[in-house]
Amino acid sequence: MRCTRLIPLLSLLLAPLLVQANPFEYQLANGLRVIVKEDRRAPTAVHMVWYRVGSIDEKNGLTGVAHLLEHMMFKGTPNVGPGEFNRRVAAAGGRDNAFTNRDYTAYFQQTPKEQLEEMMRLEADRMRHLSLDPKEFAQEIKVVMEERRMRTDDQPQALLFEQMNAVAFQAHPYRAPVIGWMNDLENMTAEDARDWYDRWYVPNNAYVVVVGDVDHDAVFRLAETYYGPLAPRALPVRKPQEEPAQLGMRRLLVKAPAELPVVLMAYKAPVIRDVANDVDPYALEMLSAILDGHEGARFPKRLVKEQRIAVNAGAGYDSTSRGPGMFFVQGSPSAGRTPAELEAAFRAEIVRIQQHGVDADELARARAQLIAGEIYKLDSMFAQAMEIGQLESVGISYRDNTRLIDKLKAVTAADVQTAARRYLNDDALTVGVLDPQPLPSAPRPRSGPAPRH
């Protein structure tokens, strides 16, 4: 049931919107949207601030700046010293962190509900008053470079994925890693971070999500108190960034120290742009679950257990993103089998679906797995907040969540077969192989402090 709610004390200050009861939403005069979902099952609250900016908005030479600024957001304001943010959250009995994605940057705290006001005070303070001290920057950029070494340079599969994106995408910003290329990090300055902050960290480029044992009217009043005084600023113009059509299969080989070879196949695929009328993205979600949604799915059952051609085999696809999508197939061949044999086995399974479709039982199992995953999110306040925030970050209303589930339920076997035929073909395929090199006799010595995130 839909209804319209006004907050009497703020009716002159807030722009009222039509809302669907729980979640509730209002937009402040400065453009900041506040989305509140009341959940009374535990006396806690999740507070998240989402900025509509990620690595997709970076330019050549500045890759990694979105992630670097995420680190700098914990380095203090005139009111809160370096590291003090985390200490205050911990003292309030909560936990906090942040994460940068291709499409967004987000910050969260989960605390006892009585501490929500303090969390808003802290986040509003650093939304527009970050110090960005050059000395703190000089230290933190080293932390980020060490994070890149630990999580990418020293991780062969991460290197394969990074190189895969750089080959699969020729023009789109998705070709660059979120953490940035090392050379860009080495040449980044505090002014680069300051410019990024000034461009994108404004209330009209952000939204706040609160989930927990709260009253939405009270949350809106707190938002007006702490976020309301922040002035909006004009945002940079985002120009369309379309990836040119791929005109044939691409291949790459990555050599890195590793125990096993890896085969990674990535097909260009659509993502959801029209929740109500799209069909193929939902069918591709179902196809991914049919191939790798449970122990009895096609890849683990046929390639790992029956044929024993792979020690692991999986598929992955995300139907929501600001940029173009990819459907991934990945695995490692068994001892005595080659990457070429595993690639052929992957292709054979895909061709079977393209030619013969899927049966009703496996479609039902895959659907049950997908729907259960969506329902289980309701058990966690944090997961609920993430769901709202991630949908909004790619231009999908959180109110469409139920419709997304309904669309998954409506996927037919014919839809899955059609999507496999339409998108899993060589013209849209990039194949990457990890060629394992001898492992070092001793681990690389760390060159800096451990990364926080």
Automatic annotation (TrEMBL):
Cofactor(s) in the UniProt record: Zn(2+)
Region (Disordered): 434-453
Signal peptide residues on this chain, from the entry's feature table: 1-21
Keyword Magnesium: no
SUPFAM superfamilies in the record: LuxS/MPP-like metallohydrolase (SSF63411)
Coiled coil: none
Positions of the Peptidase M16 N-terminal domain: 33-179
Gene3D superfamilies per the UniProt record, alphabetical: Metalloenzyme, LuxS/M16 peptidase-like
Name of this protein: Insulinase family protein
